[in-house]
Amino acid sequence: MDNLILDLLGESSVDRSSIELAAKNHRSQRHLIEGLANALKVAGVSISSVAEKMGESEYLVCQWLDGDRDLTLSQLRKFANSIDAFVDYRVTSLSESADRKFKTMTSSHASNNWVEWEPGPDHRPAEMIGGLG
Asked: What pLDDT is stored for residue 7 in this prediction?
């Protein structure tokens, strides 16, 4: 059990709040995958069809659905697109002061559902890395 918790946290020093947060994030991840599996059933799409549309193996798709392998966000989006499903991404801060700032920031952008992002020094504009297309 301790190894599972350390794996979820990705670190060796553990406190109770970190364990609770890791468990909550893990439950949220499982809930997301269960939702994806349910959407697959509702859509009546086969795993082989999803794999073909995504250019992945059926085995890998099964591993995702079983929780044996993690999807990247891009893979999650492609999976959802292949079964006509919508995935809603949410991030919530746990500290009260950060939560107030986050709510203020996101509510000012509520009309377009986007949160503005300012690139850090490690990010370069698209034209500097060859454009987007």
From this structure: 64
CB 69 within 8 A of CB 60: yes
90 domain residue, yes or no: no
How many helices (H) and strands (E) the chain has is answered by: 6, 0
91 in any annotated domain? no
pLDDT along the chain (133 residues), means of 10: 59 74 89 94 96 96 94 94 91 68 60 48 43 39
Distances (CA, A) of 50 to 24, 37, 85: 29, 12, 12
Q: Which amino acid does the sequence have at 65?
A: L
Q: What is the dihedral of CA 29, 91, 78, 127, to 10 degrees?
A: -140
Confidence at residue 126, expressed as pLDDT on a 0 to 100 scale: 41
Q: How far is the C-alpha of 125 from the C-alpha of 26, rounded, in Å?
A: 34
Number of domains in the chain: 2
